[in-house]
Amino acid sequence: MTSPVLWEEENGFVTLRLNRAARCNALTGELLEALEEVLDRAANAPPKGVILTGVGPHFSTGGDVAAFAAAVERGEGRAEATRVVGALHRVIVALLQLPAPVMVELRGATTGGSVGLVLASDMVAMHAAAFLQPFYSVVGFAPDGGWTALMPERIGSGPAAAALMLNRRIRADEARALGLATELGDDPSAITARWRATLDGHRAGAMATAKALIWDAPRLARVRAGLDAEQAAFEARIEDEETKLGMRDFLGERSSA
């Protein structure tokens, strides 16, 4: 069986590829638990840097709405929410604490909870045609992945709220202006290759120390508290009638597209 996350190592750098291209790398418990496992492996023997990317034209379309809808139909919606959102939030904290630079390559869509992987990265290489978008107000889910625990700190509470309420699409140029993307280009892999060349000449311990000081214990505690609140809200809403209707409408639109 093909792994949902691929590990590639070259010259001391590790590339992690989300490997559900047929589903636009939508996040499932299996994928996130596999990502958690490889990040634990990286933390135990830190590479020079980690590159996070996706197989196919999209980075990730966030939580798998079809999988959530099926779980709700089985009477297991809350359990599925606990598994998926809990794993996503553990991955986010693992990325923040990883004692090595984390770079992410964004192509196509990055939506819903997968934006949390971007917020937890140190450098973001974004294709000029890529975009970020929440979709929570459309589907009916509560925000997860740091949309309330991390995004307001990055772009301000007003812009974060507007993005969530209006389901605003944040295109690459705006993401760069907001500080959500480090650099734009037609080939995100070429951008991270340049970054790797730079990082290769830097002192790994100094970079790890800088990251640990940025994400110190008090700041991590605030993030964890925010992520815990997001998870509790997601679990509370997953079997709500409004959310059920939202999932049906969303999946109906996708199947008729």
UniProtKB/TrEMBL annotation:
GO terms of molecular function: catalytic activity
InterPro entries: ClpP/crotonase-like_dom_sf, Enoyl-CoA_hydra/iso
Gene3D superfamilies assigned to the protein according to its UniProt record, in alphabetical order: 2-enoyl-CoA Hydratase, Chain A, domain 1
Signal peptide bounds: none
PANTHER family per record: EG:BACN32G11.4 PROTEIN, ENOYL-COA HYDRATASE
Protein name as catalogued: Enoyl-CoA hydratase
Organism: Actibacterium mucosum KCTC 23349
